[in-house]
Specification:
mainly alpha; 2 helices; 0% strand; ATP binding
């Protein structure tokens, strides 16, 4: 156990997951498993994507 990594990335902040999932039991189960030993990196600032010309 604990021999593999899971990477989750997205644009929805973790604090909004309960409202998005819309089922408190499932949201708690997902968040407990993903965040129990997680390293969270939250980025801020302007997007570095190139603007379409």
């Amino acid at each position: 156990m604990g021999e593999r990594a899971t990477i989750v990335c997205g644009q929805l902040p973790v604090e909004n997951w309960h409202a998005f999932i819309d089922n408190p039991t499932i949201a708690d189960a997902i968040l407990d498993r993903l965040t129990s030993a997680a390293h969270r990196i939250e980025l801020s600032g302007p997007s570095l994507r190139r603007k379409a010309i």
